[in-house]
Specification:
heterodimer; A: mainly alpha; elongated; B: mainly alpha; 10 helices; 80% helix
Chain lengths: 266, 228
């Protein structure tokens, strides 16, 4: 992936008057060094790596700190600052540093910037979920003799899992949706067609490239939402289903005045 | 021996200060315009959702779906229609603020205590005065927090609008990359990061000023950008 500053990026070149169907209909468009499939794989590899690093850095630290009830203010502050820093600007800032250190345009600048973008939602989701676990449940777990470690791993994390996964899903969709900026920072990936299209004033490349990028983000969002349903522990799901149906039986929707009274009295 | 292409060359910065100031102003202008239009559109959408409860999930789902469209894709998709114009940058930027602003307005109105609303009704305030005099002020902290998240996100996305020829500081970044001359890149990137952080801090102060009672709650309810 790393290449020197001097080398020129391979550009996807298409005739200006080609239609979308001619581009996508040609098997040659999908393979080869500037093909759609290798670019897709490239994007997925980078996004997957980013997510793995972000989850490993965020979930354990947030879970332990929330379990101990520590660093609440510091966490809130870090999450806010992390969200405020613009990803594109941060990645750009790292490009010359990476080049001067001899690591090339990729992968470090975009990898670091995307990881820092992915961490706040995961960290926040984990922290709020673990610290939001019902006190009475935790106390009961302690009372029956579970060690702090067992309370965290066996009670708090399973109950918090759904919210944690929501944070991971939101971050993952955001990463896949933002990864294409790397094409504008001396890299490749699925964003390359938009870049090349803008450079060559080729509308088919611009629109088709944008549709590929959007389709990927949409598919990842749908796929992860489905996966999240599958992963939730059966016991927790039953618990939630019971709570939901109880609300329905009592004639309260999730919103509106009735629900607000319910929430207020809860 | 001197480095011809360091990360930052001060003589170049001094030389180009007029262009840099212009880029910052352009960046701010686009940000303010985006958030202003976004707030106007979000207010209408939120009013619709509050008035007709059945529209609420529709509004939430639509704005959330808009937010999921990758920024590179949305900027690019508009190029055939609106060219490399300001509209090409503004439309996606406004679209991305909606999810944050609409849910901030709705959450803000939701958390107004029922007793207060009922008291306002009981002392005979008109609907208009109940909204303007009671509900909006009480919803303000949440709305300001939404404006904060929207503005800060917009500063970052304006940088990216440079790929369609707009967006002040982003153009310095792309210019630096194209020429492999790091000074404009460093200046553009550093200034947009600083701008985002300053704006974030400015909103915290604004909130403290306008709704001093919310400071304690704010630190707990960390700004929500995520879609539920």
């Amino acid at each position: 992936m790393g290449r020197g500053a001097a080398s020129v990026l391979a550009q996807a070149a298409l005739p200006r008057d080609i239609t979308l169907w001619e581009w996508w209909g040609d098997a040659g468009s999908w393979t080869g060094p500037t093909g759609i499939l290798p670019s897709l794989l490239d994007t997925l590899t980078l996004s997957g790596t980013v997510m793995a690093i972000a989850v490993l850095l965020s979930v354990p630290s947030a879970a332990v700190l929330a379990h101990l009830g520590r660093a609440r203010l510091l966490s809130a502050w870090l999450v806010n600052v992390g969200r405020a820093v613009p990803t594109f600007a941060l990645a750009a800032l790292l490009v010359p540093l990476s080049l001067r250190a001899g690591y090339g345009f990729e992968p470090w600048p975009i990898l670091i910037a995307l990881t820092l973008m992915a961490m706040p939602p995961i960290y926040l989701g984990t922290y709020t979920a673990v610290s939001g676990v019902d006190r009475a449940t935790v106390d009961a777990a302690r009372a029956v003799g579970l060690t702090p470690r067992e309370v965290l791993l066996g009670v708090e994390l399973p109950l918090a899992l759904n919210v944690i996964l929501t944070g991971v899903r939101v971050a993952a969709v955001q990463v896949v949706a933002t990864e294409p900026i790397r094409a504008f920072l001396g890299g490749d990936g699925l964003g390359r067609y938009v870049r090349d299209g803008l450079g060559q004033r080729n509308t088919t490349l611009i629109v088709g490239g944008a549709m590929l990028v959007a389709a990927l983000a949409g598919s990842v969002a749908v796929l992860l939402t489905g996966l999240q349903r599958l992963i939730e522990p059966a016991g927790v799901r039953r618990l939630r289903a019971t709570a939901d149906s109880a609300t329905v039986v009592r004639g309260h929707g999730s919103r509106g005045r009735g629900a607000r009274i319910l929430r207020r009295t809860a | 021996m001197t480095d011809a292409n360091p990360l930052l060359r001060w003589d170049y910065v001094v030389d180009q200060r007029a262009a840099i100031v212009r880029a910052v102003l352009e960046h701010l202008q686009l940000t303010v315009l985006t958030v202003a239009i976004g707030l106007a559109v979000a207010s209408v959408l939120a009013a619709l959702a509050l008035r007709t409860i059945r529209l609420r999930p529709v509004v939430s789902a639509t704005t959330a779906a808009l937010y999921t469209i990758p920024s590179v894709a949305l900027f690019a998709l508009l190029v055939p229609a609106t060219g490399l114009s300001r509209a090409t940058a503004l439309i996606p930027l406004v679209a991305y603020t909606l999810v944050v602003l609409v849910s901030a307005i709705l959450d803000g109105f939701d958390q107004v205590p029922l007793d207060v609303e009922e008291a306002a009704e009981a002392i005979g305030l008109s609907v208009r005065r109940r909204v303007i005099g009671v509900r909006i002020p009480l919803a303000l902290p949440v709305i300001i927090n939404g404006l904060r998240v929207a503005s800060v996100t917009t500063v970052g996305l304006v940088t990216l609008a440079a790929i369609v020829g707009q967006g002040g500081l982003g153009r310095l970044i792309l210019d630096g990359l194209r020429r492999a001359f790091w000074t404009p890149l460093t200046v553009g990137a550093l200034l947009s990061i600083v701008l985002a952080l300053l704006l974030d801090a400015a909103f915290v102060l604004l909130e403290r000023r306008l709704a001093p009672w919310s400071v304690r709650e704010r630190t707990v309810a960390v700004g929500r950008r995520t879609v539920d």
